Amino acid sequence: MKTDNISEKKVIIKDLVNSGINITPSILDLLINLEEPLKKVKLIIKNVSFLPNFEGHLTKDILKKISNEELSKSLKTVMLKEISSVAIQDKQLGENDKTELSSSLSIIETEKIKIKTHEKSEYADHLKNQLEINENPLILNNLDNNPLKISKKNNQKVSPFGSSKSTVGFKPIAKNFDFQYEILKDPTGKLYTNGDYEDFYNLTLDKFNKLRSLIKKRPEVLSANNINNILRLTNRVEVSAIGMVNQIRKTKNGNFFLTLEDQTNFINIIIRKDSENQDNIKIAERTINDQMIYIEGTYNPGERGKSGIIYCTYISKIDIPKNYLPNKSPDPLSIVLISDTHIGSKEFEEKLWNRFIDFLNGKIGNKNQREQAGRIKYIIINGDLVDGIGVYPTQKDDLNIPDIYNQFKKATEMLSNIPDYIKIFYSSGNHEPVRNAIPRPAVPKKYSAELINSGVICIGNPSLIQTHNVNSLIFHGDSILDLNMLIPGLENNNPVETMKELLICRHLAPIYGKKTQIAPTNKDWLVIDDIPDIFHTGHIHINGMDYYNNIALVNSGCFQSQTDFMNSLGIHPTPGILSIIELDTLKGTQLDLHLN
Questions:
Q1: Do residues 389 and 404 make contact, with C-beta atoms less than 8 angstroms apart?
Q2: Distances (CA, A) of 71 to 35, 38, 49, 63, 449
Q3: Which pLDDT score is estimated for 54?
Q4: What residue numbers bound the domain in which 378 lies?
Q5: Are residues 312 and 377 in the same domain?
Q6: Residue 155 in 3-state DSSP?
């Protein structure tokens, strides 16, 4: 037996055990002989979960009942070969390989025995999760490969969760834990402005001071001088400075010209496209106005009264430390991140929402998925819970609930089906009946009273929430579209890359004066001064999940299909893909909720 076959068998065994499926060595041999066995086993796990008589034991009879045509054909081919070649295959199996495989099976059996020993404990679900073999902390479904399969019998889509099940036996571990949360930052009730020049000045000054304090934490900036002192120099010398980008452009020959400012003056900077400057050019290509940067270079004093210029040899932004260690919970609990449900819209995906409610209540899903549902303790709704009124031209044509109060009434009704041991946080978005400029306060009580009475916590945007020791930064994501238009390589269908840029410059709306409306408050609520463990955005209606320097990034997609307005913006939404983060590990999972 080949070594890679043994490795594949180990992976197959763990995949099956994690899904609550038992197999015999003979079935394992059958599976390993399939073409692309790892891929086929994943298909088998998805398909057997909705077989009515399947009780967790994978047998040949169960395999014969699988309706997936490609999988069924592949299984039949291997079974026929097995009948004529079992004896030969057995001889080819060396004693050393048998010992190694037997050892692997023994390890898995030991883990299963440990789990059974503790299955009466409230931590049974947590122990089962220790069998996770994916080394990447985020378990990402491939969004390009829709997991829905077509049954040839009735020509209908079959959900990967399988048919609805009774909640008898569904014992959510989250029910055994008390709520532990704190709203660390919320702009509600603290947003005072007259809209005059003084307010704009105070906002800019506060932004500058906060970002300068953050960049000064980088060890290389200790020698930075203020710009006015540099301009007084009369000889060519090496200098360094920190400041905010006032303007930046690419010259005809590929160099970058920018103007840097601090509280003392402005100075011009050139970043040449020389071969030794390629790293600096890459940073410059993703630099926009109003970002705080640090530069080093050679200062050439101006002649005949002209201002001097710095020829840059090094440039950096504030960024997140690469060795950042995120907080984690001591408790085996999870948080669900959603946004942009748009209740009241004709395009609201109510069937997918009901599927979500069934999942939370343990009514659908295989054993592993029901255990996953049982860990969920918190839900964060990151804006646009309702579709609102008059948000964009012709919106009235997209509404089936044209009254804002009735939209909130419907939202309260739909949220009421979520188990009461799950705490819901609701942050305002650009479709809520609040001001459009960010930061936004929470939805006023005149609209949200019923939600509040039902236990939902309404907060502003952005906000920072701590749940069981884990800090989640909640930002609806209004500025994502601006950055995607300004920075080459960023695009709407990959929102997590844009989220990384926001973390790098440590500001949620780094450029002022584009489509993102920013209120002139005396305090800049959009500076990311506290590093989060989870960064959650929405707004763009496209699901995404990734990491950046150990921070879990989630853009939570939506529960709304494409409207004509979205189509005009070139946005193709991904509704009904659920984002779940485990608070004790920060591992992420995306679950597709689609059904027929």
A1: yes
A2: 10, 12, 15, 9, 52
A3: 64
A4: 173-191+327-592
A5: no
A6: coil
